[in-house]
Amino acid sequence: MITARLSNKKRLFVFILYVALVFVFFEGATRLFFSSEIILERIKGEDDATRRLIWIKQHQGRAGNRYTFDRYDALRGWALKPDIRNMIMPGGSILNSNSMGTRGVTEYRYGKPHNKTRILILGDSFVFGEEVSDHETFPYYLQHILPHSEVINFGVHGYGHDQMLIGLKEEGAKYAPDIVILGFVHGDMRRNLLKFRDYAKPKYEPARNKLILTNVPVPSPESFLRRESYRSKFYDLLTILYSRMLLHSAAENEKMEEITTAILDEMIKTIKNIGAVPVFAYLPYNEELENAGEQITDKEKYFFDLCSRENIGCVSLRPYFAENAKKGVVFRKTGHWDAKGNQIAAEGLKKYLLKKFLTYPK
């Protein structure tokens, strides 16, 4: 009996040792696998592990930090640094920020301004104005073609709707805006599923008709880098492969729409609670700019259905781009908008706002 027990323990020990050795082998092989930027580039997906591994490489001296204008934010993950002066960006554009970390040099006081309609614009890199200078962003153009208004650019590159909502609650509400515009980019919906994008970020989870905020406080970059050596790269590989398998599946899209709807519902509620008017503006990009038709696209359908259900102001800027394209106006149709694209977006928004919400002289 004793001999049988010892034999069983020995088999268990050998089995555990075998499993451990197999894991060590695969872990080592995966780390070697990921050391090649070419291989990582080929298998990368739209998941947390891929985004994190790319960020780690950038911050370990291999590729440098692309976004030198960021600061760490414990709630949102990252935000624009305050008091930037004439920073030259890739491509030669110029970046400035005010003392509160919003784009441009104009300072805005908390509370409602006198004799001005204050417009706050939430969004990602299209609102922020990536690849163009301060005076070429569409919030800047909108400010100058609506002289009786004050337009605050609350856009931040890489943001999902979750980070926009947090920014609105924590900071944007203090400015007591009259109108809050969400620059809606369809691709941002997928960011709401992530805990890591341009850096670690918060993530909302739906639970019994309410939102639970997770992954906060977001760890600092220094502590995040220290933990990296303890993370299993083999697990990362399995995560990336599984995420690639689910990408664009019906289940994934349903989950994406569910969390996005919950976040945007909360955003609308927050805007109304601070006494502002919510306006959602659909921002087209890439292949959408080639579509000169007037019919609603598949990507716009979710957007308009949400607006209709919530009974809020809603406009797609795609027809304005299509109209300008037919007139022969030249603007960039891939990547971020150029200065002309931003100008078209501002003009389209102006027309909509004057028609629906603004009554001062045109």
List the helices and strands and how they pair.
Blueprint: H1 2-34, H2 37-43, H3 48-58, E1 70-73, E2 77-80, E3 87-88, E4 94-95, E5 117-123, H4 125-128, H5 138-145, E6 149-155, H6 161-170, E7 179-184, H7 188-191, E8 203-207, E9 210-214, H8 221-227, H9 233-246, H10 250-273, E10 277-282, H11 298-310, E11 313-316, H12 318-326, H13 339-356
Parallel strand pairs: 5-6, 5-7, 7-10, 10-11
Antiparallel strand pairs: 1-2, 3-4, 8-9
Overview of the molecule:
This protein has helices at residues 2-34, 37-43, 48-58, 125-128, 138-145, 161-170, 188-191, 221-227, 233-246, 250-273, 298-310, 318-326, 339-356, and strands spanning 70-73, 77-80, 87-88, 94-95, 117-123, 149-155, 179-184, 203-207, 210-214, 277-282, 313-316. It has 362 residues and is α/β, with parallel strands linked by helices. The chain has a single domain, classed as 3-Layer(aba) Sandwich (Rossmann fold). A hairpin with a 5-residue loop joins strand 3 and strand 4 (94-95). Helix 1 packs across helix 9 (233-246), helix 5 packs across helix 13 and helix 6 packs parallel to helix 10 (250-273). The termini are far apart.
Helical proportion? Answer: 40-55%
Q: What kind of sheet is the major sheet? A: 5 strands, parallel
Unreliable stretches (pLDDT < 50, length at least 5) are: none
Number of helices: 13
